[in-house]
Predict the structure.
Amino acid sequence: MVTRPMTPDELEAALRRIGAERYHNLHPFHRLLHEGRLDKGQVQAWALNRYYYQSRIPLKDAAFLSRAEDPALRREWRRRIEDHDGTDGTDGGINRWLALTDGLRLDRADVEAGRGILPATRFAVDAYVRYVRDKSLLEAVASSLTELFSPTIISERVSGMLRHYDFISEDTLRYFGHRMTQAPRDSDFALDFVKREARTPEQQEQVLEALRFKCDVLWAQLDALHHAYVTPGLIPPGGFRPR
Ligand SMILES: O=C(O)c1cc(C(=O)O)c2c(n1)C(=O)C(=O)c1cc(C(=O)O)[nH]c1-2
């Protein structure tokens, strides 16, 4: 039997089905976070661990750029690094994430050094950086496609956290406001790219597998937080201990 390739729109529909089944908005830890059912220490643990993800995103995008031979593709992709690193050391997503960890009264030097992050945070995030470094450019672009689904979870998160936690303010959540425009711009580009470039059934399966992989990267981080800080509450040696 010869499998025919999917049309670009069929491929998009298959990608969206993966998001609907596996994106981290479905994880129980996110529900607890957004519904105000965590205490401050648990929210601190989330923000601390998530900083490690934020801090590695520019490294994975730099790994991507180092292999992209097309200047137009590099021009598009390098904006992602600027979004996170900023241009003068005062703006940028990493600084905005530090405003959140500052607001939660975490020590900045500890956050920046990754002191107390969970082993699984490190393993999952490092696996993402390696994936983008080692796989094809098509798979690397496809692995960023979780961002197609992030605006919905971000708006749920911001409204839920503002409503439920007195230690959270609009100012400390300002990171997310910027993502609401950056993420759709980035994911529109990535989606057009994979719809155009993934033409054979093999390439299309690689694209779908890349998105499943990335959903696992996000899910594994929340599993680890849930295991350490919710139930059974086993904080690994060296892990952050809320006061
Ligand atoms: O808050 C979220 O739920 C969420 C999800 C994702 C994602 O789906 O990968 C990203 C982000 N935020 C984010 O802030 C971000 O900078 C980001 C970069 C990437 C990527 O794969 O390049 N994903 C995400």
Summary: DSSP finds eleven helices and no strands in the chain. The chain has a mean pLDDT of 97.
